Amino acid sequence: MTETPRRLWIRNPLAILAEGAGGGIVVEGTRIAECLPAGAEPSAAVDAVFAAERHVVIPGLVNTHHHAFQTLTRAHPKAINKPLFPWLQALYPVWQRITPEAFRLATRLAYTELLLSGCTTAGDHHYLFPKGLEDSVDVQVAEARALGIRACVTRGSMSLSQDQGGLPPGTLVQDDDTVLSDSERVLNLFHDARPGAMVQVALAPCSPFAVTKRLMRESARLAEAHDCRLHTHLGETLDEDAYCLELFGQRPVAYLEEVGWLSPRTWLAHGIHFDDAEVARLGAAGVGICHCPTSNMVLASGRCRTCELEAAGSPVGLGVDGSASNDSSNLIEGVRHALMLNRLTYGAEAVTHLDALRWATMGSARCLGRDDIGRIAPGLEADLALFTLDELRFSGAHDPLAALVLCGAHRADRVMVAGDWRVIDGEPAGVDVQALREAHGRAARELFGEM
């Protein structure tokens, strides 16, 4: 990997998503040292200059919900054209056969895809621990470190099998004590609560219909003790609402409060089917919501009430969601989808490209409980995505920042994480993309061949 100079001036960008930074930014070590107005020069000598006249510079995108293992089952014939519950039931038997090597490749591919889309912090919700995948968190941490991407890895879980009233088969669940013991293990090994952390761990029981109330409560206690975040799916479909009413006698938000999760430590995936009173309760508690526009459209789950949730006080971020319900791990594409879906919901003037970019940066960072990433400002981590507008799709565009979203940017030219270049000239540093594609594709074919 190419070593980045200690003090680097990213000079005179074509456009930059930061106030008073028309002259660029100075990166020193892992952090942003200066933001320079147009025409200004650094206050002290720099070791190198990167001429950014062709580049639109934005904060590194922050992904707050994904399932890396699902890259192995994209466009799977048993699951396409189905809503969530039938979709899950079709794929559970396939996922239970994922091998450790296939999982490693799936994680590597998902992280690489995210980097190429301008994402610098990868949140992954991993809840699949069949026999042989007990050390999945360890694998994901190792892959994140090898690629140099910042990561929030969750120790997910499923503990209610079909014969206990849940959805997953018995081969995919673990008992509560096993989950809690391993949760504490990975927190002790990998979780770094300090500013600038490259790896953080969150606890993430899969959903109300996949775990016990005890596991939810004990996970909340562990999160408090280790100062980590809590994450789960909630309010994704009307089926989920009906399930919670039948199983627990209450709607999902009331359930969340009963098990001790209604707090600023929590962020939720999807958050679509909340009524007005629930939106107010979530906002008052500071619960974050990860909006997954692409997945929500593919599965026809519904529309997240982003504007109402934000107005109520909930941080709103973006996630690509699993690559079997999105079929892509491209977060800048998700930004465009968020803009389009929310304009359809709220009107053309109510949601702008800047709102969608804010959700993918500052909003997502807040969901993860971080104030050291998600913005371009002195003292913050040097996580940056640089895009060029050289493709035909951008010809004739007049507002460079708007063009990224409206014209459909797909791939960053440069990506910096913690002051180091991780994507250079559109290629991930240190990754043989062709070899990864071949190995991952082979693993997916082998999995499909066992059907």
From TrEMBL:
<dbReference type="InterPro" id="IPR032466">
    <property type="entry name" value="Metal_Hydrolase"/>
</dbReference>
<keyword id="KW-0862">Zinc</keyword>
<dbReference type="GO" id="GO:0046872">
    <property type="term" value="F:metal ion binding"/>
</dbReference>
<keyword id="KW-0479">Metal-binding</keyword>
<dbReference type="InterPro" id="IPR006680">
    <property type="entry name" value="Amidohydro-rel"/>
</dbReference>
<dbReference type="Pfam" id="PF01979">
    <property type="entry name" value="Amidohydro_1"/>
</dbReference>
<dbReference type="InterPro" id="IPR050287">
    <property type="entry name" value="MTA/SAH_deaminase"/>
</dbReference>
<protein>
    <submittedName>
        <fullName>8-oxoguanine deaminase</fullName>
    </submittedName>
</protein>
<keyword id="KW-0378">Hydrolase</keyword>
<comment type="similarity">
    <text>Belongs to the metallo-dependent hydrolases superfamily. ATZ/TRZ family.</text>
</comment>
<feature type="domain" description="Amidohydrolase-related">
    <location>
        <begin position="56"/>
        <end position="420"/>
    </location>
</feature>
<dbReference type="GO" id="GO:0019239">
    <property type="term" value="F:deaminase activity"/>
</dbReference>
<dbReference type="GO" id="GO:0016814">
    <property type="term" value="F:hydrolase activity, acting on carbon-nitrogen (but not peptide) bonds, in cyclic amidines"/>
</dbReference>
<dbReference type="InterPro" id="IPR011059">
    <property type="entry name" value="Metal-dep_hydrolase_composite"/>
</dbReference>
